[in-house]
Amino acid sequence: MHWPKGVDGLSYGGDYNPEQWPEETWDDDVMLMREAGVNLVSVGVFSWARLEPRPGEYDFGWLDTVLGKLHDGGIGVNLATPTASPPPWFTLAHPDALNTRPDGVRQVHGSRDTYDVCAPAYREASRTIAAKLAERYGDHPALAMWHVHNEYGSATYSAHAERAFRVWLQAKYETLDALNDAWWGSFWSQHYSEWDQVLAPRATQYLHNPAHELDFKRFTSDAMLEHYKEQRDLLRAASPDVPITTNFVFGQWVPVDHWKWASEVDLVAFDSYPSAPDERAEQQSALHADLSRSWAGGGDWLLMEQAAASVHSHDGAIAKAPGRMARHSMIHISRGSKGAMFFQWRAGRGGAEQWHSALLPHAGKNTRMFREVAEFGNTLPGIAHTVADPVETDVAILWSPDSWWATAGKHLPAPIDYLENVAQIHRVLRDRGVVADFVAPEGDLSKYTTVIAPTTYVLSRAGAENLRWFTAGGGRLVASYLTGAVDEHCQVWLDGYLGGMTDLFGIRVTEHLPQPAGEPRALWNFGAAERFCELVELRGAQCVTQYASGDVIENQPAVTVNPFGEGEAWYVSCKLVDEAWDRLFEELKLSGPGRPGLDVVDRGPWRFIVNHTEKEEQVGNVIVPAGSWAVDKKQP
Predict the structure, then answer these.
(1) Which residue intervals of 416-569 are DSSP H helices?
(2) Fewest C-beta atoms under 10 Å: which of 160, 266, 439, 479?
C-alpha cells in the first residue's frame, strides 16, 4: 500500500472547503490546523462549479493560493477531482447526464450526486476536469494524495445505463442462450430473443427477476469503477509517485463490490458514519474498521471521514459525549487505520450540511469541541510508532456483496437482513474479545482457524469448493441458515441447498420455515431462535441442540456439527439471538482479552485498549480510566 506523500506518522485532518469562505479566513484556518495537530486535508471535493464556472473557463487562482498556504504551513493536501457534483451549467447543457431513478424519473441538480455514471457527456467532462487538475497540480509540493470523486454509490437506470448494461452482459454471457439460462428466462415469459430487449430493472408490475437485479448491481459497480479508473489513470500519468484513492462508503444503497475495488486503489479509504445512538455506534465503528482492513488485504488503510461531535442516527444527530470522538478514532486506528480524518474542518454557515459537526465548530476555537480536537490531534504523533505491526486475528467472517444485494429482494420466503446477520456475529465476537477479519467466499482462508459464514445466501461453485478445501485442511467452518441457498445466478442449489455441500455439513436442509415475528423458538440449553428456522435431516452430522418448540421443528436439529477431513463443519439452521451465538462461541472456545464495552486489539508488541464504559477498567497491568484509551506494551 502507498501512503500520503510527505505526511509523517498518522494522518489527522478532514475535508477543507476554503471556496465556501472569504479569503481572509484562510490564514486563520492554517494557523488553527497547526494548533490542532492537523497534517492532511482533503480539498476540492465539491468545487467543480468554482473551478469551472462556465464551460471551458477555468479559475484555479483561489486553489493555487490555498495550496500554497497549506504547504507553507506544513499541511499535506489530499486533492480531489470534483466529479461527484457537476455544476448547474453542465446538467442544463446535458440533461441526459442526470441520473434516472428506478421509477423512470430523471432527477435534477440542486443536491449532490446528480450524475449518470454511464452518460458519455459526463464521462468526458469528468476526464477533462481531472486532466486539468493533473496538469496544473501533478507536481505541486503540497500534493500528498489524489482523491477521485466522492463516495461512489449513486446508481442510475437510464437509457445510457441500459446500453452499457447490455454491453456488459454480452461480455459476461456471450450469447442470449447463456443469458436466458442464467436468468431462468422461461419463467413469466422473460426469454430474450434480442439483446435490445434487455432493460434496466426499473419499476414494473410485480416482482423483479432476482438474477436480473443482481447482475445489474454487479454491472453498476463495474461501471462506477471504470469511471474511477479513467480519472485515476490520468492522475497517475501526471504524478506517478503520488498515491490515488477514493473514499468507500457503506450502505444498502451502495452497489459497490469493495473486494474488487480494493485492488484498483493505492490505499483503501473509508467513510464511517455509525447510525446508532447508543453503544451500537461503537459496534458499528469496529465493524467498519474490520471490513476496511480486510478489503485492504489485512494491511493498513485510512479512515477518510467521520463526524467529530455527533452520531448520525436514524432519529437525528446525537451529540457525542466528551472523549467519544477520540475513542471512535482509536477504534479505527487500533484496527489498522493510518489516521483519523473527518468531515469537515470548518462547520459551514449555509447549505444542506450546515449543521454537520466539524473539527472547528461555528463558535470557533474557544469551545469544548475544538479543545478536544486539538488534544487528540497532538497526542497522535506519540503513538505513531505503535501501528507498524498487523492486527492479530485467526477468525474470519465471510462478507458477500452478492448475498447482501440478493437478500434485499422481495421474493424471499421471509425478510432477510443480511447486514444485521453479519453485524450480529461481529458484535458477539467483539463482546467476547475476538477481533475478526472479513474474507470473500472465494478468498484466501489459509491463515484462519475458524471461518463463519452468516447467511451466505449466494454461493458460487468456486466459493463452495473453497469452503470445502478450508474445512478438509483442518479449519472449523460455521455457517448459518440460508447459506448456499442459491448459486451466483440466483438459481437454487438442489437436493439440500448448502451450495451442494451436504456431505461437508453431513445434513440436508429439506424445508425453510419462517416463523411469526415476536415468537422466539426455544432451543434445548442453547437460548432461542427467532423469525427463521429450517428443517434439517441428519446425514452423518451430530445434533448439538434441538428446537424445544414449534410445530414441525419441535425436537428437530437446530445446530449440528460434522467432521470433515481434518476439520469440522457446524451448521446453525436458524436465526439465533445474541445470547445463543454467545453460547455457541463459548462451546467453540472463541474468546480474547476484550469484553463488552472494552475494545482490545493486539498488534505486534503493542496492545490497544479503548474503554467505552463508565468505570475504570484493567487489562493485564494496564488501568484505563472510564471513557478513555491507552496503548501499552503487551505483558509477557
Answers:
(1) 418-431, 461-472, 502-505
(2) 266
Spatial strand order of the sheet with 542-546 comes to 437-439, 395-398, 450-453, 476-480, 567-572, 557-564, 542-546
Strand residue runs (E) in 539-597: 542-546, 557-564, 567-572, 574-576
Cα 473 from Cα 48, distance rounded (Å):
54
Evaluate whether 430 touches 486 at the Cβ level (below 8 Å).
Answer: no
Considering 213, 282, 305, 568, which one is annotated as catalytic? Answer: 305
Q: Render pLDDT for 66-96 as a digit per residue (tens, 0 to 9).
A: 999 999 999 999 999 999 999 999 999 999 9
**Counting runs of H as helices and runs of E as strands, what totals does the chain give?**
17, 27
Q: How far apart are CA 105 and CA 526, in angstroms?
A: 50
CB 38 within 8 Å of CB 75: yes
Q: Residue 61 — φ and ψ, nearest 5°?
A: -60, -45
Report the 10 Å Cβ neighbour count for 549. Answer: 13
Higher pLDDT, 602 or 317: 602
Q: Specify whether the CB–CB gap between 531 and 583 falls below 8 A.
A: no
> Taking 90 as the threshold, does the pLDDT of residue 39 lie above it?
yes
Average pLDDT in the 598-606 region?
Answer: 96
Q: State the sign of the Cα–Cα–Cα–Cα dihedral 153, 158, 159, 160.
A: negative
Q: Give CA–CA dist 482/496, Å, rounded.
A: 11
Q: Are 33 and 42 in contact (CB under 8 A)?
A: no
CA distance 255 to 153: 6
Q: Is 151 a catalytic residue?
A: yes
Q: What are phi and psi of 90, to 5 degrees?
A: -70, -45
Residue with cell 462461541: 585
d(CA 536, CA 626): 47
Q: Which amino acid is at 503?
A: D
User: Which residue's C-alpha cell is 452520531?
Assistant: 311
Tell me the Cα Rg of the chain.
26
Enumerate the β-bridge partners of residue 610. 599, 629
d(CA 192, CA 215): 15
Contact between residue 437 and residue 294 where contact means Cβ atoms under 8 Å apart: yes
- Dist CA 160 CA 147 (whole Å): 26
DSSP state letter for 365: S
Q: What b-and-e string marks burial along 392-415, b requiring 16 or more CB atoms within 10 Å of the CB?
A: ebebbbbbbbbbbbbbbbeebeee
What letter represents residue 628's amino acid? S
Q: Which three cell numbers stand for residue 150?
A: 466522492
- Distance separating alpha carbons of residues 629 and 621, to the nearest angstrom: 14
Extract the runs of DSSP E, i.e. beta strands, from 214-322.
244-245, 247-248, 269-271, 301-305, 310-313, 316-319
Assessment of whether the complete model's pTM goes beyond 0.90:
yes
Active site residue 124: no
